[in-house]
Amino acid sequence: MAAVDLGAGSGRVMLAEIAADGVSLTEVHRFPNDPVRLLDTLHWDVLRLYAETVRGLRAALARRPDLASVGIDSWAVDYGLLDTTGALLGNPVHYRDGRTEGVPERVVAALGADRLYTTTGLQLLPFNTLFQLVAATGTPILDRAERLLLIPDLLSYWLTGVAGTEVTNASTTQLLDVRTRRWSTELISAAGLPERLFGPLRQPGEPAGDLRAEVREAVGATGPLPVTAVGSHDTASAVVAVPAEGDRFAYISCGTWSLVGVELPEPVLSAESREANFTNEAGVDGTVRYLRNVMGLWLLQESLRVWRSRGYDVELPALLAAAAREPGLAAVVDPDDPVFLPPGDMPARLARACAERGEPVPDGPAAITRCILDSLALAHRSAVRQAGRLADRSVDVVHIVGGGARNELLCQLTADACGLPVVAGPVEATALGNALVQARALGVLDGGLAELRGLLRRTLPGSGSLRTYQPTPGVEIAWRDAAERAGRRDG
Ligand code: ADP
Ligand code: LRH
């Protein structure tokens, strides 16, 4: 299987070799995913993402000419619009673009926060597709659009010529009914959006078409090669590959964002849950991903970009080692403050946030990095505790998957902040979850998520890709005090 996984920071094509008794994963291609600002709008470089996907598939086929299937996942909410001929209208806009400013407030005032939540189960994030589309209302592109395809569906369409809409990612639009998992035509029309944009839904594991002849040639495939729908929302695929046993676990899918929550059989749609801004996204096999978006390692990524643009020689491993030597919990901010959402001078924003809160202002990359990681660990603590409480679920262990699992300091701080063991890894959970769903669809594996996770647990420890962090004894009071200082009153 080839798993194409497009994160907001980087994309990769992984070759997964899966059998009933083992899984191995090899990175065959990785590339940066750099946004492009054109005039006043921040865009994704979507043609580059397509070209790199093709290059990666070529590399996968060079190793395994018998490649059986391709699956694609990416970050959520963003989309391309097609005209009646299937041509892309405009270039997909980046969710960190400012065009939705003021739109959520308007939509909530018109439709009602309670109605939006009980219909869709989604947290209010300014970039939800609903708000992006309302912001685009009246533009020539939206007027001419026939079909909306979220990013993985758009790439899949370019590879196969078949347009489809995968349900886990569709759930992030805030236009899907959380109970029926169908488009909410009522909400679509109440928001003044054209119903024609929203096509039939497909489920993870369903076929998504075969590569077109010229694509086959470009990637070097000698025979038909199917694309299989996977949990095309990257977080849905990541949660599939959380190597947990039973249901008393929380997960943190930790990369550009920290997606912190629990897996549930049913959504939680209470007023308290809405006020806590918890989301109920559709998971693989009908599960609910009950979670909150924490701003995540974006804060560090963007700080690194700014430092490097100023000529500082900063490398991540050395910076993290220096941050580990800094005094802990010296200065904390709320990482979810919307001021941190757009690209920009993150070190200056962090310094300003500390000054405004009466915290000491961190000076220099090591102290700023420590401030970011302490603040993220506090936000992890708050979201894990709130998820457990709002969903009435006991949590004994926190799993960290994604690139953040390589950050030993963040994993230890999260264990300390939560007062729970943290199991870190796999780093490439998203690609693994993507590939496992393909393998099951092809009949190589069977069973539900518990069986897929069992296979991972049997396979991963031997490869050294799981590491457990125990909370440091005696630090509870320091974290409780810091949580109070940060204004997080969730115990
Ligand atoms: P996304 O899929 O959102 O692009 P990833 O899951 O690839 O994100 O995670 C990227 C993050 O992983 C980076 O922002 C970085 O902070 C962290 N990371 C990557 N490599 C390392 C490393 N060697 N040590 C510590 N952290 C790392
Ligand atoms: C993580 C992610 C997250 C979304 C965000 C837009 O990559 O998909 O789940 O909220 O990107």
From TrEMBL:
<feature type="domain" description="Carbohydrate kinase FGGY C-terminal">
    <location>
        <begin position="250"/>
        <end position="441"/>
    </location>
</feature>
<dbReference type="GO" id="GO:0016740">
    <property type="term" value="F:transferase activity"/>
</dbReference>
<keyword id="KW-0684">Rhamnose metabolism</keyword>
<protein>
    <submittedName>
        <fullName>Rhamnulokinase family protein</fullName>
        <ecNumber>2.7.1.-</ecNumber>
    </submittedName>
</protein>
<keyword id="KW-0067">ATP-binding</keyword>
<dbReference type="InterPro" id="IPR018485">
    <property type="entry name" value="FGGY_C"/>
</dbReference>
<keyword id="KW-0808">Transferase</keyword>
<keyword id="KW-0547">Nucleotide-binding</keyword>
<dbReference type="Pfam" id="PF02782">
    <property type="entry name" value="FGGY_C"/>
</dbReference>
<feature type="domain" description="Carbohydrate kinase FGGY N-terminal">
    <location>
        <begin position="3"/>
        <end position="240"/>
    </location>
</feature>
<keyword id="KW-0418">Kinase</keyword>
<dbReference type="InterPro" id="IPR013449">
    <property type="entry name" value="Rhamnulokinase"/>
</dbReference>
<dbReference type="InterPro" id="IPR043129">
    <property type="entry name" value="ATPase_NBD"/>
</dbReference>
<dbReference type="Pfam" id="PF00370">
    <property type="entry name" value="FGGY_N"/>
</dbReference>
<comment type="similarity">
    <text>Belongs to the FGGY kinase family.</text>
</comment>
<keyword id="KW-1015">Disulfide bond</keyword>
<dbReference type="InterPro" id="IPR018484">
    <property type="entry name" value="FGGY_N"/>
</dbReference>
